[in-house]
Design a protein that fits this description.
The complex is a heterodimer of chains A (296) and B (317).
Chain A (H helix, E strand, L loop, with lengths): L1 H40 L3 H5 L13 H8 L1 H33 L6 H10 L7 H10 L17 H14 L2 H9 L4 H9 L4 H17 L2 H6 L8 H12 L1 H10 L5 H38 L1
Chain B lengths: L1 H15 L3 H7 L1 H19 L27 H8 L1 H21 L1 H11 L4 H12 L6 H12 L5 H8 L11 H29 L3 H9 L4 H26 L7 H6 L5 H4 L2 H11 L3 H28 L7
C-alpha cells in the first residue's frame, strides 16, 4: 500500500509541477502588462525613450504623476468620476434592492407579469439612435444625469439579489416578522438587508466598476469637457497620442516618446483605484457571481 | 389577538379573489418600492422602442418626427445594398465566432486545472490575479496592449528586434490584429469565466472521486470521467447562451483596440452604427441597422433558450 502510494505520487508530482507552472505562467501573463506600464510610469523619459524599461523602473521619479495630477482638467475629471461613481452606485443599489425585494415576495399580486417586464430588458435594446433621440427629447443630452439614470437599473443585478433573497433568507423569518406586525419597509431594512451584506457588497462592486470603466454612453451623449468621465478622457489622450497618432508617427520616428511616460502614468492613474479596492472585495463577489450563475 | 384576527381575515379575503384595489391597499409598500425601478425601465428601455419608427421614415433631424415622410422599407433596402453594412456584419460574426472558438474552452480548461491545485495560497493568489483583467476598462486594456505591442516602441517588438528578428505588426496589420483581438479577449475574460465552472466543480460529490481513487483511476481519468461529465450541463448552458449572443456587438472593445490600419476587420455593427448614426447623422440608416441586429439577436436568444430546454437544461428566458 505504501509503495503504491509513493509510486502514484511521483507521477502526480510531475503533473502537479506542470499544472502549477502553467497556472503560474497564465497569471504572469495577466499581470505583466501592468508591471510594465507601472515601471514605465515611474522611469526617466530617456530610459523609456530608449526602450530600456521592461519590468524594473530606471531613474525612479514621479514627474509623470506630477504632470497628470497637475493637469487641472484631469483632476476635475477624476473628482467628477468619483462623485459620479458614488452617486451611480448608491442609486443603482437602491433601485436594485427595492425591485428585488418587492419581486421576491410571493404575496405580491402581478409578480409574474412585473418580473417578466423587468427581465425582458436583458434581451433587447432599441439601439443607439433611438436611445439618443430619447435623451434628446428628455433634454438629458450633455448632462450628468444621462450618465446615471439610464443605467442604474440592471436586470442582471436584480436577478442576483432576488435569487439570493428567495433562496437564502428563510421564509419563516419573514413570516415571523410579519406576525410581529412589521410592515414591508421594516422587513426589508431590518430583516432582509442585514442578512444580504455579502451579496450587496458584490453588487455595489459591480455597479461601481461598471460606472468607473464604461465610456460608451459618455461618448454618445456628452459634449462638454467638464462632464467627461475619466475613461473618455483617457481614451482621448491615449488614442490621440497612442494608436492613431503614434502608429503613423512611428514610421517616421516621431518625437512623441516623451509622452509615453505621461501616458503610462495616466493609465496607472485610472487603474489604481480598482487595483487597490479589488483584493478586499474579491471574496464577496465570487459568492455573488455564483448566485447569479444559478439563474444565468 | 387582534393581529391574528386580521391575518386570518386577509387569507380568507385572498382566497375570495379580491380586486386589484385590495392588493394595492394591503401591499402598497411593495408597489411603492417598485415604482421607481418600473418607471426607469419603462422610460429608458421601452420608450426608445418608439424611436425605431425612424427606420421607416425619411427622417431628417431638422424636420423631426411629424415632418418626416413614411417610406416603408426603403431604408432597409438601402442598408442591405450597402457594402459597408455587409463588412460590419461579416466582422461582427467573424470576431464573435473566433471569440467563441478560442474564448469559450479557455475558462473550462483553466477551471479544471485550477481545481487540481491543492496549495491554498498559490490558488488564492493566482485566482486574484486571473480575475483582475475583467475589472479593467477596454480603454486601459487597449492602452496596455499598445504599450506592449506597438510596432516600434512596443516592448515585445523591441525584444524581437534586439534578438535579431523583424518587427511583427501585431496591431497594425489586419490579420495579426484579428488574432490579437481574440487573444486580448481571452486574456480579459478567461479568469473571470472560470468562476462559474469552479462553482459547478465544487458541487460535485466528493465520493465520486474517492470511489474512482479506490478503483485506481489516475488524475486524468478522474478529470475525463468525473469532472467533465459533471460540468456538461453548465458547459452546454454557457455555450448556448454564447451562441445566442453571436450577433451582439458592443462598442468598447473594437473601438478602443482599432486603428486606421485595420478598419477592414475592426468595423463591427456597433462602430458602424456610431459612425453612420451619430457622426454622420444618418439616423434612419443607423436605426435600421440596430433594429435588424436586435431582431436577429432576440430570435437567436429565443432559439438558444428553446434548444437548452429541449436538451433538458434550465433555459435562460
Amino acid at each position: 500500500m505504501a509503495s503504491k502510494k509513493i509510486r502514484r505520487s511521483i507521477g502526480d508530482n510531475i503533473a502537479d509541477v506542470l499544472i502549477y507552472a502553467f497556472i503560474a505562467l497564465v497569471a504572469i501573463v495577466c499581470i505583466i502588462p501592468f508591471i510594465h506600464v507601472a515601471a514605465m510610469s515611474i522611469s526617466g523619459d530617456a530610459d523609456v525613450y530608449a526602450n530600456n524599461v521592461f519590468l524594473i523602473p530606471k531613474h525612479l521619479n514621479l514627474n509623470a504623476y506630477r504632470t497628470v495630477l497637475g493637469d487641472p482638467s484631469m483632476m476635475h475629471s477624476l473628482v467628477f468620476t468619483v462623485i459620479l461613481t458614488v452617486v451611480f452606485t448608491i442609486l443603482g443599489m437602491m433601485v436594485t434592492i427595492f425591485s428585488a425585494y418587492a419581486l421576491s415576495r410571493p404575496k405580491l399580486k402581478g409578480r409574474h407579469v412585473l418580473s417578466t417586464i423587468f427581465l425582458m430588458t436583458m434581451y433587447f435594446s432599441a439601439g443607439t439612435i433611438p436611445d439618443y433621440m430619447l435623451m434628446d427629447t428628455l433634454n438629458l443630452l450633455d448632462t450628468a444625469a444621462v450618465l446615471v439614470l439610464p443605467l442604474i437599473f440592471s436586470a442582471y443585478n436584480m436577478i442576483i439579489l432576488r435569487t439570493f433573497m428567495q433562496n437564502s433568507i428563510p421564509d419563516s423569518l419573514i413570516e415571523a416578522a410579519e406576525l410581529d406586525g412589521c410592515d414591508d419597509f421594516r422587513i426589508l431594512f431590518q430583516v432582509v438587508l442585514p442578512l444580504s451584506k455579502s451579496v450587496l457588497a458584490t453588487l455595489a462592486l459591480f455597479y461601481a466598476v461598471g460606472r468607473w470603466n464604461s465610456f460608451t454612453d459618455a461618448l454618445y451623449f456628452i459634449q462638454s469637457d467638464t462632464l467627461k468621465p475619466l475613461q473618455l478622457k483617457l481614451y482621448n489622450l491615449v488614442n490621440a497620442s497612442g494608436s492613431t497618432g503614434a502608429l503613423a508617427q512611428e514610421a517616421g520616428g516621431g518625437q512623441q516618446q516623451a509622452a509615453e511616460v505621461v501616458k503610462s502614468a495616466t493609465i496607472m492613474f485610472a487603474t489604481l483605484p480598482i487595483v487597490i479596492i479589488y483584493p478586499f472585495v474579491q471574496k464577496y463577489f465570487v459568492t455573488g457571481v455564483m448566485i447569479g450563475a444559478v439563474k444565468g | 389577538m387582534k393581529k391574528e384576527k386580521t391575518v386570518t381575515e386577509k387569507t380568507v379575503k385572498k382566497k375570495d379573489g379580491k380586486g386589484i384595489a385590495f392588493y394595492l391597499k394591503r401591499d402598497w409598500q411593495l408597489y411603492v418600492l417598485l415604482l421607481i425601478p418600473f418607471l426607469l425601465v419603462i422610460i429608458f428601455k421601452f420608450l426608445p422602442l418608439a424611436g425605431l419608427s425612424i427606420a421607416f421614415l425619411d427622417y431628417k433631424p431638422i424636420k423631426g418626427f411629424a415632418g418626416s415622410e413614411f417610406i416603408g422599407l426603403e431604408v432597409f433596402e438601402k442598408v442591405f445594398k450597402s457594402r459597408d453594412f455587409y463588412i460590419a456584419l461579416k466582422n461582427t460574426l467573424l470576431l464573435n465566432i473566433l471569440d467563441l472558438l478560442v474564448g469559450f474552452p479557455a475558462p473550462v480548461i483553466l477551471a479544471i486545472l485550477l481545481n487540481e491545485i491543492r496549495c491554498k495560497w498559490f490558488k488564492r493568489t493566482t485566482q486574484t490575479i486571473l480575475y483582475l483583467p475583467h475589472f479593467l476598462s477596454w480603454v486601459i486594456i487597449a492602452g496596455l496592449a499598445y504599450q506592449l505591442f506597438a510596432p516600434l516602441s512596443g516592448y515585445v517588438n523591441v525584444l524581437i528586434t534586439r534578438m535579431g528578428g523583424n518587427t511583427i505588426p501585431f496591431l497594425t496589420e489586419k490579420y495579426h490584429w484579428v488574432v490579437m483581438y481574440v487573444l486580448i479577449g481571452v486574456w480579459q475574460g478567461m479568469g473571470w469565466g472560470t468562476i462559474i465552472y469552479l462553482a459547478a466543480i465544487t458541487g460535485i460529490d466528493a465520493e465520486l472521486y474517492e470511489a474512482a481513487t479506490v478503483d485506481g483511476a489516475g488524475r486524468w481519468r478522474k478529470i475525463w470521467n468525473i469532472t467533465l461529465p459533471c460540468l456538461k450541463s453548465t458547459i452546454i448552458v454557457m455555450l448556448i447562451m454564447s451562441l445566442g449572443r453571436i450577433m451582439g456587438s458592443s462598442l468598447e472593445r473594437p473601438y478602443t483596440l482599432s486603428n486606421p490600419m485595420v478598419t477592414q476587420f475592426s468595423d463591427v455593427i456597433a462602430t458602424y452604427v456610431y459612425r453612420v448614426g451619430l457622426q454622420n447623422s444618418q439616423y434612419n440608416v443607423a436605426t435600421a441597422v440596430g433594429f435588424f441586429q436586435s431582431l436577429v439577436g432576440v430570435v437567436l436568444v429565443l432559439i438558444a433558450d428553446r434548444v437548452a430546454k429541449l436538451m433538458g437544461e434550465d433555459g435562460i428566458v
